[in-house]
Specification:
13 helices; mainly alpha
Length: about 240
């Protein structure tokens, strides 16, 4: 099986998953239109409330999108499909690359939907600011894409759903997706150490005409590298069992 064919199969399978569409697209969009619409004239975190909340909901929806690859891995492990794939010409790297790319394609879909909703509520940015914000969000999703692979090799299908929902909700909460959890002090220092905080800050960074500070890149790199090392360990352990 060639890599493009497998990727197309993954995308089609994901689009047919109604639960995924509800959690990654439906819930964030509904919350944004409801809460953002009621507060369209307000400001939060130094920017307009609709812009802040649009980015927060995009962070939540895209996290669900990329971590959901773990649910597909867990399902394939349970039915023995992963073992069968190992004896095909499809390389292991191509297998995981398809999972990550599929997650990113779904994340882009979530972003486009929420951007459209944001524009309908009066969000106005230059083309450069839209592109900068989108690029920062996509980069900030790297640790979560790796986290999906880790969870897919650690959890069963039955436990994957609740775990994914709980983890993404906590990341969104502490990252400030529904509003800043802290504006100063020790708590702010702590929340800056999680990658979801910088996802939510992507709008403010783009609006200011600058990217993330060095602190953001360090945090994202540490999470990505750390989770990647864990992913290698759990994959090898899982492979050794069969």
């Amino acid at each position: 099986m060639k890599h493009p064919t497998y990727l197309r199969y993954e995308v089609l399978r994901t689009l047919r998953n109604r639960r995924f569409l509800v959690f990654s697209l439906g819930f964030p969009l509904l919350l944004f239109l409801t809460i953002g619409g009621l507060n369209r004239k307000a400001h939060l975190g130094g920017i307009s409330f609709p812009l802040y909340y649009m980015t927060g909901m995009a962070a939540w929806g895209t996290m669900v999108a990329v971590i959901s690859s773990g649910a597909r891995i867990a399902a394939e492990r349970q039915i023995g499909w992963t073992r069968q794939m190992r004896i095909t010409p499809l390389a292991t790297s191509a297998y995981f690359r398809a999972k990550v790319l599929c997650g990113y394609l779904m994340a882009l879909l979530s972003i486009v939907v929420l951007y459209g909703a944001g524009i309908s509520l009066g969000v106005r940015l230059s083309a450069g600011q839209w592109l900068t914000m989108t690029a920062l969000v996509l980069i900030g999703l790297i640790p979560f894409a790796v986290l999906g692979i880790v969870l897919g090799h650690l959890l069963s299908v039955d436990s994957m759903g609740p775990a994914m929902g709980g983890i993404t909700t906590l990341f969104a909460l502490f990252g400030g997706a529904w509003g800043p959890l802290a504006t100063s002090g020790v708590l702010l220092t702590l929340v800056k150490c999680i990658p979801s905080y910088w996802l939510v800050q992507a709008a403010k960074s783009a609006l200011g005409g600058r990217g993330w500070p060095a602190e953001a890149w360090i945090v994202l790199a540490i999470w990505a590298v750390g989770l990647a090392r864990i992913a290698v360990v759990v994959y090898r352990r899982d492979t050794a069992r069969v």
